[in-house]
């Protein structure tokens, strides 16, 4: 009898436990909003993105109204999709958390910079609600933002946030973020005075030199594939580019004007976690100068003939990027004066006790040091973020190293979340100085991995 009573009590307890566990708190409202309240527009076309707090289960309509100032639709500008009654009708696809539209200048139109368009999210399909940043002013000139809050979009599909597929470039003064698939390129050709080539650290790439200059004479017999492995305690820093952005410390040596001095390199275009691509997918490359530009020779490791690609320097960008699989140059970074920070996965370094070794990090933040951006970390024990003003800049020394922020802004073990005891000052090439702090990046601090939130505010306007 006692056994029966105990069994009944156990069943009742489990039933109560299960009932409680099923009573999960409801998800917070799913809100739709523009990425920022202001945006500048100097080119021929710009994309305006609308984001949701999370992905929708079914296709969700969004309508956006527009009110031009000193502009006439279809005379000075158009939109894609086109408007009907001053309204753009959009649809967020099922499983997605954003949608966008484009604004284009009409060919041959000259504007004086006072023109603008006011966009407003007029409605959204249930159960999604309209969020705080429901209006956006698009100015037909460059703007100097007073600051904003923004969520970076590192997720390209359904990948986990710790392996976010996008690198995200952020231009503080324009309130513009540019997500780019980090697997979309392999080599970056420097457009400055020096002849330097980088490998794709954001894709975990590694490379090693072969003591040969005839690319056709190189095969898998000239190296051990495992020697290309980096990350997770394996590999040497000599296999990857300098993490602080020093171009004198790239894996690929400076490209010599003397062809005979330019060796062949083996490139593992994707790795970072001790993994090396199959031999059939490894590339051999050799780079020569061609006038003021470059000539790239490339082939799969065991191919006996190579292809060539000429790259012309473009001073508006830090690098021209090449995809070996496409055999062509591809767009990656915005123009060098159009971005300040880059967020995402990248090879970096760590120390397991026997010296520095390459290590793949998520959520790394690099500054555009080659474009003239400088930064410095400020601890809240010396000045709080809210109170920091132009008068506090006295005595501040900015750094030109690309990894001033790096991984120092967040904690990934123990109490996971952004570090609230620090913020950063960013000086852009125009001399504008912003204070910037991270708000969230992980479910443990109220955020979402792969979509970090940050805020920034103008401290001093450039001259």
Please tell me about this protein's structure.
Residues 1-21 form the signal peptide. It comes from Dyadobacter endophyticus. Keywords: Signal. It holds the Pfam family HmuY. This is HmuY protein. By secondary structure, the chain is mostly beta strands. It has three domains: 31-143, CalX-beta domain (Immunoglobulin-like, Sandwich); 144-183 and 332-463, no CATH class; 187-329, no CATH class. It is 5% helix and 38% strand. The chain is built from one helix and 30 strands. The protein has one helix at residues 2-22; strands spanning 31-34, 38-40, 45-52, 60-69, 77-80, 87-92, 98-105, 116-124, 129-130, 135-139, 147-151, 166-171, 176-181, 187-190, 197-199, 206-210, 264-268, 283-290, 293-300, 307-311, 319-323, 328-330, 341-351, 356-367, 374-379, 410-411, 417-418, 422-427, 433-440, 453-460. The strands form seven sheets. Strands 5-7-3-1-9 form a five-stranded mixed beta sheet, with no helix packed on it. Strands 2-10-8-4-6 form a five-stranded mixed beta sheet, with no helix packed on it. A five-stranded antiparallel beta sheet has the order 11-30-29-28-25, with no helix packed on it. A hairpin with a 6-residue loop joins strand 19 (293-300) and strand 20 (307-311). Residues 1-22 have low confidence and may be disordered.
